[in-house]
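>> received
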Amino acid sequence: MIIPVVRKSSYFALLMFLFSALPVVASSGPTEALKPTLEGMLEIIQDPSLSGNEQKDSRRRKIMDVATRGFDFAEMSKRVLGKTWNKVSPQERKTFEKLFTK
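>> returned
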């Protein structure tokens, strides 16, 4: 069962989120690679037309659109699970990736 692994690895999730940006430019550091994605997310959060509870779903959808273009959630999921990745079934991997991304 991968639930305990999820709890253990949640501390690493943020780190993996920050360092798995795509595309990573060899000459720039992680901050520069993440900058466009984070700026895009910040623009959405600060957009007055997307504020309030009535816009929550739209805001989340837009943020996830930006995040999925900037982060490789499949690779991050694999790295978070580490050696456990090879021990779980493909279905468990898909489930973990879906939950991790959410």
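>> The two ends are 19 Å apart (CA to CA).
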